[in-house]
Write a structure and sequence with these properties.
Number of helices: 15
Protein name: Binding-protein-dependent transport systems inner membrane component
Distance between the termini: 28 Å
Low-confidence stretches: none
Subcellular location: Cell membrane
CATH superfamily of the largest domain: MetI-like
Structural class: mainly alpha
Keywords: Cell membrane, Membrane, Transmembrane, Transmembrane helix, Transport
Number of strands: 2
Main location: membrane
Organism: uncultured Pleomorphomonas sp
Shape: flat
Length: 289
Amino acid sequence: MPRTSRFEGRLLIAPLTAFLIALLGFPLVLDIIYSVSRVGFENIRAPEPIGFSNYAKAVADPEFWAAAWFSLRFGLIVAVIQVVAGLMLAVFLAPLFAKRPWLIALLMLPMMVAPALVGLMYRLILHEFVGAVPYYLLEWYGDFPAFLGRDWAFTTLVTVETLQWTPFALLILHSSYAAISPDIREAAALDGARGRRLFVNIDLPLMLPALGLTFFIRFIDSFRVFDNLYTLVGPGAGGSTTSMSIYIYQAFFKVGDIGLAVAASMLLLAASFVVLWLINGLTARKAPL
C-alpha cells in the first residue's frame, strides 16, 4: 500500500481514535489508579496508593469466589441454552421467516422490555404470596415450589434470562443462516448431502463465526448480569444469587470500599478478555468453501 494511502487512512480514523481514547481511556486509567489505592467516598479525590492490596483482598475473599462461581455457571448455562435454542429456531423457522419476515420483529419484543422491569414482572408473577403462578399451582396440585427461594432461585433466573434474550441469538443466527448462498447448498445436494448431513457438514461450519460471536456476547452479558437479577431476587436466597456485578455494587455503595470494588471490576474485565481470546481462537478457522 502506498505511503500516501496509509497516511490518508490514519488521518481518517484519527477522530474516531481520539474519541475512543477520550471516552474509554480516561475512565480506564482512573479505574487502574483506584484499584491500586485505598479510596472511599471521603477521599475519592485524593486516593492513597497501596499497591495490589485491593486485588489481594478480593482474591482472598470467599464471597468474591462465590460470586465469580455463580456468574460463571450462570453465564455458561444461559449462553449455551440461548445459542442452541436460537440455532434450532433459526433453522426450523427459516421457511416461515422467508414467507412472513414480520414475524421476526414480533419475536424480538421480549428484548424491548427493560431487564429491571422484567425482573419486577416475574417477581410479582412468581411471588409465593401474591404471584399468579404459585396461586394456580396451589389450586391445581395443592403445592408449589419456592421459585424465589434458595433451591429454585438459580433455575428461575436461568429461565427468565433465557426467555428474554433467546430472540437476540435467534436474530443473529437467522441472519447468518439466511446469508448462506443457495448455490453452496445445491452443490452439496448434488454430492448427496441432504438433511442432517447438509446441516452438519455445510451450514454449521459456515455459521461457526456467528455462533462464537453470539455465545461470547450472551456469555459476557449474562456473566455481568445485574438489573433483572437484582430486582428479581437480589443477593438473597441465602446469598446464593450474588453475581459479580452485585458483589461490586455492594462493595462500592454499601461497604464504601471503592478500591476493592474497582479491583474486582478490573478482574472481571480481564476475565472478559480471556473469554474473548479463547472464543476467537476456537472460531477463527477457515470455513469450507
